[in-house]
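Board work, copied verbatim: Phenylalanine racemase
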Amino acid sequence: MRTNLLDYLKVTSDKVPNKTAVIDGERNISFRTLTDQAKKMGCIINRKISGTIRKPIAVFLDKRFELIMSDIAIMYCGNAYMNLDTKSPIQRIRNIIELIEPELIITNHQHIAKLEKVLPSEKILNIDLIDFDNEIYSQDVLDHILNSVIDTDPLCIINTSGSTGVPKGVVLNHRSFIDFTEWSINTTGIDDNEVIGSLSPSVFDIYSFELCMLMALGSTIVILPDGLAAFPTRILQLLQDHHVTFIFWVPTIMVNIANLDLLSRIQLPALRSIWFAGEVFPTKQFNYWRKFLNQSKFINLYGPIEITLDCTYFIVDRELSDDEPIPIGVACKNTDVFILNDQDKLCGVNEEGELCVRGSSLAMGYYNNPEKTAAAFVQNPLNRSYPEIIYRTGDIVLENDRGELIFKGRKDSIIKHSGYRIELGEIEHVIINTLKIVENGCAVYNHEKKEIIFYYESNEEFQAAEFKKRVGEMLPKYMIPSVYYKMDQLPRNTNGKIDRLKLRESLSELIK
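↓ predict structure ↓
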């Protein structure tokens, strides 16, 4: 029985020590080198934090081999990694660090000046100062640490948008990732010959699953640099050059590739597993991919960050018309999903309601945030006999006549944009309360154009460029509204609050 993801890596590194684990530009790093450096790094971290375990260690590095190695090193010293977005404004990084209070933050020469504004030097570990050739590690020390780690100990913390302007740190454990990895291997056909085209940022849970595949299957991770998102032709060429067999992407880039008709010019015969999640994949563009890659197995996955990776899946096994939504399918093994109406009763077939999830896939909660945890992870209203925690996703779905779940939308102000889960309330909080640019405003998402719109009341009209510049000092690029619309008065409902529903319903009219 596996109690730690490193149980996988030990078997893999012993079995295929010379196999390439990571391809990072011109560098090909073997499993032997990866595990050797990660163990050395693990011992360095252990000394630096005086043997503390089960605590968060932050990583502030670009997505390169060093980041992957650092995350595994943190596992070796019995702690939880928390990757931070190096492109985020310093204030957002400060907010996360003040909430999570990591024991240490790993960075390099490139980013250390930014972090020194946030943390004292003794809390920062500069990886560029480590001479790995002359470092040694103690296997006895590592074994002693790992013997005290159990499967429900935290593996990682992933930060997601929070309505108060401070991101929430979702805690995910080893057992949940092990369950999902075992389900994936037994259900989807992935095997020990996978070459992963790794495009997702390191702050995504998709990246963490790619780590699982590396450790459990001996998969090779081909790092696709962040900057290539704007150059889809180059991305496809790298997939072709490295004979990539597996991708797990957010649909945004896939839609762009379809719209540019790139698959008609760049052949990808090795690509046999195509997974997508994080937002709705328009079926017209999906059908384009399926037309040119008919040798591939396509899987649509669904799950909020509070569910480890995903909780439902749909292996596309039939033709779908361009106007038919791709189902999110059925529950993964060892996870149960059900749909509740407004009275907390089970919905019938073709009746819309809120999707709820129970099982070992649930996150452990939000780090250092018991109030938010208690509000989101609640007692199952269908079970009054014993404690049973469920997560209410806030997503509206229905079960069709085939027994498949169909995603219909959100019931609140949380959106998925460019693969990130965003609280529109956080954008409003920053603009109105933190930056005090305007006294009143409301953020709305245009799902058709995939853009965030900010409506505001003000005596003066601001240029979009001015808004973007100021908001960009506090929020990452993917959270900055692209359209700003001044109104004499925002619509109100009967209790005097901004009528968000009316704004959403009249969106097309208001932006003309």
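The chain is about 30% helix and 25% strand.
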